[in-house]
Structure formats: C-alpha cells, structure tokens
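#lab-general

N.A. 3:47 PM
ok so I finally got the sequence cleaned up, no stray characters, all 255 residues accounted for. can someone with queue access submit it? mine expired

B.Y. 3:52 PM
send it over

N.A. 3:53 PM
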Amino acid sequence: MAHDFEELFVEADSCGSIPLPLRRALAAVPRPLDAAVQGEKTAYGTHLAKQMAMVLSGELTSMGVPDCRPNPTSGSGAERSFAGGIGSKQVDVSYATEEIGLVMGISIKGIYFPDATRLKKDGHTYFAKNLVNRKGDMLAEATTLHKRFPYAVLGGLFFFDRRAASDNRSAKRSTYDRCHRAFKPFANRLSHADADEKYECFALGLCDATSYELSWVGDPTKSITLNQFLATILQRVAEVNSDHFDFDGTKLTLV
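B.Y. 4:20 PM
back already:
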C-alpha cells in the first residue's frame, strides 16, 4: 500500500508537536484483526516500524541531525545496514559520518498482537509469547553494533499493544510490567566501556491505532514524551563526541 510520506509530516511542520505525527503514523497503517493470519500481522509490524522511523528521522532532522536516515521526505536509507562486530545489522533510524562511523542508531520493535493459540483456546489476550525472542533480537543488535562502534549512541523503542498492560494470567505482573523488569538491566549504557548489549537510551511504549505513551525502561509509572527520548539521545551524542557536536537541549550543532 502506498503512502504519501510528505503528507504525513504536514501537521508536524505546522504545530511543532512531536506526539502528533507519531499518532498519525499509527493511524496510517491499517491494523489487522487479532485473528488474521500471521503473515498479515508480521507485515503490519514491519510497515509500522518503517512509518515510525520516518517520523523519528523527521524530528531528528528538525533537531539538527544532518543526513539522518531514512530521509524524512523520500524514505531512502530505510533499514540502513551496518557491518557490526558479529555480522551486519539493519538499523531503523541512523546517523553516520565517514570520520566517526555510526554516530547514532535507533531500533524499533514491538508486539502488537496477542498469542493466537491462547486467544483461540480460551479467549485470553496474552502478549508475552514472543517476548524472549524479541529481547534476544534487541540485545544482539546492540552487541554487534557496539562491538564495531563502541562510541555509538543506541536508542531502543519497544512498543506493545495497549492491552499488554493488563494481560496478567493470574495475580502476577502484566506482560508490559514484566518487560520493564526484563529490559532494565540493559538500559542506560554510560560509556564505551560499559556492556555492549546495553542501550544508551531505552523506552517502552503502549499504543493502539490512534495513540501511544512512552516511559523509560524500568519506570512504567512515569510517562515521557518522544521529544524527551530524542533529546536524551542527542545529549548523549554530544557528550560522547564533544569534539564534534554540541546540544543545547533543542538543537544539535557541529562544533
């Protein structure tokens, strides 16, 4: 299905609001029913990640990141491939230079549909079935990129369908709360000497077809804005590359 990417950003330019275009990205991708075949649901997740990447790249470009990929108008450079320490990895949103290599990368993943077997068996919506695999994917991506680019600033965004916040099978934690606990040890990488599998900035989100909310990994009770997430990434970029960049809280500039 073709989408007009330029139209997607019209309101972002006019109102300067970061949450608005991401909500429009969610609305731009038709969501299959829970009972849809797996191929349709996989295609939805892939297309949604691409739309979100366009939004993030557009906002980062407006915050001073030069040549951020994918290009927020044409979409070129989507899922850019980088040679890592353990094979190559495709990065959803990236900024790289010839002098530094990978400066910044953001990985976008999600679980948007409940376990089909449980849903068919007892009608319960349960979202943790693929959590271990998705966690492994994200940690492997951070590891291989940091092996090759130890100073790269990596951001992780992991979204769940909003129902994952209340899908507890008994009196225990929901999948969303469990994910916060599972990912917490892999957030807040502080320096190039810290563990390769950790992300410098890591946030979890809940979403539906028209809205979303974010929080830092490990703190599900406190919401953050997408602007806070991106600004934190750029602040780390400036700290790690102080000879090349400065960040004043709103704009990244070349030194």
